[in-house]
Design a protein that fits this description.
Blueprint (H helix, E strand, L loop, with lengths): L1 E3 L19 H10 L4 E5 L6 E6 L7 H12 L7 E3 L5 E6 L8 E6 L2 E4 L4 E4 L3 E2 L2 E2 L1 E2 L9 E2 L2 H8 L13 H15 L7 H14 L3 H11 L7 H10 L9 H10 L18
Parallel strand pairs: 5-12
Antiparallel strand pairs: 1-2, 2-8, 3-5, 3-7, 4-5, 4-11, 6-7, 9-10
């Protein structure tokens, strides 16, 4: 743990996160010295914890984004969680044994992941007189493993918008051919994969070409429904920024896809 400034999230010790300790004697010294201190716990490799930090404020509502992610991918299993002073959540999971960095607005707006390089404030710490408090459902339990779909999202590189580039028709054709080739390695029957590929294609081209690629690829999956494809495509403009065309190529590589020599133009290396 690390002691934090009372009524605040800043570390009290000079070394900050690097000074975190599990030595009981040192922790007792901190308690004696700063009895009103808030408490922080490092995340990632140091503690074996990954925490999904769902923020709620006037500017953003991570709870809405969390609900959307679960509707598209499946419910998060019951695990240890705490309520934050502003009405958000800290959801605790076991470190899956892979390096997950701390990031903001990832895997969605208003949701941060606390992994390597981060820490969380834990109960009974207070901010402005309001306490962090563990949820009753998680009391006495241990954090569970991250569900597979959430682990995949947390491992992805966050989407960083790039300046829009004007391509010649030849370059656009090359990029489209590259995408079509990659899509041949991705099945369209898994709902989670289907949504992510759709988001990736939408980020590539939210117009007719992107939709045509999505619809054509979707037709190869079980239960293909053109109305469902059109409806889902229309929803991608509402918060699909965490997924880029790189996600599509990542999924294809997982299934053995490799970029063809004729597609290795320097203009496309940023997608690999």
């Amino acid at each position: 743990m690390i002691p934090l400034v009372p009524n605040d999230k800043r570390p009290l010790i000079k070394k900050g996160l690097k000074g975190a300790s599990k030595n009981l004697e040192e922790i007792n010294r901190w308690i004696s010295k700063w009895p009103d201190a808030n408490i922080g716990i490092p995340t990632g490799d140091l503690s074996g914890l990954i925490v999904v930090d769902v923020d709620k404020s006037e500017e953003k509502d991570g709870l809405v984004e969390l609900r959307r992610l679960q509707e598209e991918n499946g419910r998060i299993p019951r695990t240890v969680y705490s309520r934050t002073p502003r009405g958000g959540l800290h959801i605790y999971f076991r470190n899956p044994g892979v390096r997950i960095k701390s990031r903001t607005n990832h895997p969605g707006k208003g949701i941060d992941v606390r992994g390597n390089g981060g820490y969380v404030v834990v109960p009974p710490s207070t901010i402005n007189g309001r306490s962090y408090a563990y949820g009753v459902e998680g009391m006495g339990k241990r954090p569970v493993e991250l569900p597979g779909w959430l682990l995949d999202l947390l491992k992805e590189k966050p989407f960083i918008p790039q300046p829009r580039k004007e391509y010649t028709p030849l370059e656009s054709n090359l990029e489209t051919e590259k995408i079509i080739h990659a899509l041949q390695f991705i099945g369209a029957s898994d709902y989670h994969t289907w949504v992510r590929v759709g988001m990736a294609l939408h980020s590539f081209d939210p117009g007719g070409n992107g939709y045509s690629l999505f619809d054509s690829w979707s037709s190869g999956g079980k239960g293909y429904d053109p109305k469902a494809v059109k409806s889902k495509w229309s929803s991608f403009g509402k918060g699909a920024g965490s997924v880029s065309i790189s996600t599509l190529f990542y999924l294809a590589r997982q299934n053995g896809w490799r970029i063809k020599e004729e597609h290795k133009s320097s203009d496309f290396k940023r997608h690999c």
